[in-house]
Amino acid sequence: EKENSSAGASTCTCIDGYFRDGTGTCQPNCLKGSSLNPESELCQRCPAGQYGVIESKKSGKAICKECGADLNSTEGSSGEDACYCTKGFVKNSKKLKCEKCAEGIDCDSPIVNRSMVRTQQGFYLLRDTNDTETTTYAAGRTELPVLISCPLKKACLSTDDDTGLTKCAEGHHGFVCGLCEDGYASQGPLQPCLRCASLGVNILAASALLYASFALIFGLTYLAQSSGARP
């Protein structure tokens, strides 16, 4: 029995779990992420590029809606959060809209969710372990993590696929990869971290060059004085 009625009612209503279609027939409600095919009268998954919603609480009818321009989704997706931006775009979290990819984000592949954000070399990615940060890109707000331009570009590599964190160059670690690991040292601001042995060799080489320069100057001065002293 798909219909019920009450005393004095002029029409019958569909029981819970059913809705009345255009022909007046009670059809079973489809699950969210699918919709009723009017021809086959069977539920079918929402196609890629669409997402499933319940039309209204009263009807309980599941329908599919388009994600929109520059957006895509997987088949059978449920809710607009399932829509993601195609290559070269990032999603605005205030409205279902895509915006041009911000500098520093690697948008060569679609960003399906924030955990898939990858950075370009020279940028440091901040991630909040509580998943709460919201930052501003272009004209709207998005849930993508904060990107910071690294002072020493070559110290910040791309994102680690296993951890989702920024990979630092050898010998570097910490915020914007600006600290030297144990056994490494830097010769000054915006200088790379080198192994201490390598740093010592560089200092010796610089000292040798300095002594050689002094020797050359002394030699040239001696020759000049000798030439001037000749009758």
TrEMBL record:
Coiled coil: none
Residue stretches spanning the membrane: 199-224
Residues of the signal peptide: none
Short name of any one Pfam family annotated for the protein: DUF7630
Keywords of this entry: Membrane, Transmembrane, Transmembrane helix
Domain named DUF7630: residues: 148-196
Record bears the keyword Transmembrane: yes
Protein name as it appears in the record: DUF7630 domain-containing protein
